[in-house]
Amino acid sequence: MRSASNKYLLAAALCCFAALAHLGCIVFGGDWYRFFGAGEQMARMAEQGLWYPTIVTSVIVMVLLVWALYGLSGAGAIKRLPLTKLALILITGIFLLRGVSFVGLMPMFPENSLTFWLISSGICLFIGGLFALGSWQQWPVLGGKNA
To answer: How does pLDDT run across 3-19, given as a tens digit for each residue?
Structure first.
């Protein structure tokens, strides 16, 4: 791994840290779920004090925070985490797959608005692209002698 910081992985990590905005849904409830396009059903469940929206949102926040740490690790900004290279490849793949597969996912979540799908998919493609560029910059030949 190169010692210089990697601006693409740093930017990807920063984007993942923005996941803390999801905590607003937990704290402020239904209106925030509606604003973020999560659907009326999630908003109503949050307003009723049901645990499901809090659990789902908390899992999303935790996953994105772990991914942010792997971005920082890959960039050399923090200590190298276990399986950093593999994690970055998987994270990149998941973000890019989520970004392009929204049409197939939409019927599974009919409550989510089209705006939600378009914006969240665009964000996923953007962050996935940052992870891809940063990983490529850090390890130009994944699996080769520079790996």
So the answer is: 558 999 999 999 999 88
Q: How far apart are CA 25 and CA 19, in angstroms?
A: 11
CA–CA distance from 105 to each of 43, 108, 129, 134 (Å)? 20, 5, 20, 27
Domain membership of residue 2 (yes or no) is no
In a domain, 145, yes or no: no
Domain enclosing residue 60, as ranges: 7-138
Q: Per mean pLDDT, which range of 32-36, 112-116, 123-127 is the poorest?
A: 112-116
- What's the domain count of the chain? 1
Confidence of residue 141 (pLDDT cuts 50, 70, 90): low
* Whole-angstrom distance, CA of residue 103 vs CA of residue 106: 5
Q: Is residue 144 part of a domain?
A: no
Residue ranges in the chain assigned as alpha helix (H): 7-17, 22-28, 30-35, 40-47, 51-75, 84-100, 102-105, 114-138
